[in-house]
Amino acid sequence: MAKASDLHNELDMLHADLRKTSESRRDATRTEQAPPKDNAPAAKALGGKVECEEQLRELGKMLSEHMESVEDFLKEHQLASTLAAFVLGVAVGRSMVRA
């Protein structure tokens, strides 16, 4: 079973790669010429894309913070977590049989 520190290190490396990719895309977007004024829908789409990327970055940060708290909870309540996973597995298994 993988150690939590190994998982954290892998997540950190993935976050770093994601940041590099996002920064390179952002730099490429900045170097593009601004769309002409008569092309207002394209300008809105470009602005929406940048805004969407910002929101995704913020969401990624929030999820990584919550992931750490979930991992801590699972470490503290191992038995309850295992039982919950088992019950969920049984419920999903029964619903798959019925479908």
Report a brief summary of the structure.
The protein is an all-alpha fold and 99 residues long.
List keywords for this structure.
0% strand; 3 helices; mainly alpha
Description:
- The chain is mainly alpha-helical.
- It has helices at 4-31, 40-76, 78-98.
- It has a domain at 41-99.
- The chain is built from 3 helices and no strands.
- Helix 1 runs antiparallel to helix 2.
Outline the low-pLDDT stretches.
none
| Biggest sheet architecture | none
Structural class: mainly alpha
Number of strands: 0
Note the overall shape: flat
Global Rg? 21 Å
Beta strand %: under 5%
Number of helix segments? 3
Percent helix: over 70%
Query: Span between N and C termini?
Result: 33 Å
Order of helix and strand elements from N to C terminus: HHH
The mean pLDDT is 79
